[in-house]
Specification:
The protein is an alpha+beta fold. The protein has one domain. The chain contains six helices and nine strands. Strands 1, 2, 3, 4, 5, 6, 7, 8 and 9 form a nine-stranded mixed sheet that branches. Strand 1 and strand 2 form a beta hairpin.
Length: about 240
């Protein structure tokens, strides 16, 4: 009887651990699915991200439903994923996602206090390396600019290629460049652990020789990026 009771207690403890883990994994999977939907919708906007800039981007960060925090003036927070191209020069096919978090900063009047989708293009290796190391304060540790949009901007994008990160937002159906000066972006290590079932750093996911496979929940995000810009360019 004692052995039976002990097995019941052990089973209950295991279930108690498994349920939160499953919830956390589902939460990350849902964020990836939302990121895929956001990317699909933004890429289908007539005046969307200029093709030239998307082709040059080393990584894309999608943060669905960034919200204005209840504390602090102008403070905001959001969670999402960074997907980078594979290859030594980040010009190959898109790889698996690393989860990221955005905190602080002011979005100005474009957001108006409501949930807003944010897309960031990481334009060079310096920007990628900064984001893979640790917490980055945008505009301080990495240069950032509101990105241009539309086909008419394609001929005037040379200046934007010098920025490490270009930022866009979509709020109330309006798609535009947005300033994120002062906001902090950092890897969500807990989110990566929940998603992949083991502890992985953002660098291991993005650059590691044994990087994980693209999760099923990220297939839509990968598909939309691959369709819009299958390979990058340094030219």
């Amino acid at each position: 009887m004692k052995g039976f009771t002990r097995r019941i207690l052990i089973g209950s403890m295991a279930l108690g651990i498994a349920v939160p883990c499953a919830f956390a994994q589902n939460q990350q999977q849902q964020r990836l699915k939302e990121a895929g939907t956001v990317m699909q919708q933004i890429l289908n906007v007539p005046d969307n991200i200029p093709q030239n800039l998307l082709n040059h981007a080393k990584c894309v960060i999608v943060l669905p439903s960034v919200v204005k925090a209840a504390f602090g003036v102008g403070g905001s927070y959001g969670h999402g994923a960074m997907v980078c191209r594979t290859g030594a020069d980040f010009t190959g096919p898109w790889g698996p996602p690393a989860m990221y978090s955005l905190e602080g900063g002011s979005f100005g009047f474009q957001i108006g206090g409501q949930a807003t989708d944010v897309v960031l293009l990481v334009m060079n290796k310096a920007g990628v390396n900064s984001l893979l190391q640790s917490k980055v304060k945008l505009g301080v540790n990495a240069s950032i600019a509101a990105g241009p949009k539309g086909r008419s901007a394609a001929a005037n994008t040379d200046a934007y290629l010098r920025s490490e990160i270009l930022s866009y937002s979509r709020s109330r159906g309006v798609f535009a460049g947005v300033s994120l000066q002062g906001a902090t972006l950092h890897p969500d290590t807990g989110g990566d652990t929940s998603l992949y079932g083991k502890k992985l750093s953002a660098r291991q996911i993005v650059e590691g020789p044994n990087r994980p496979a693209i999760p099923a929940a990220a297939q839509k995000l990968d598909s939309e990026l691959s369709k819009a810009s299958p390979h990058g360019t340094n030219a």
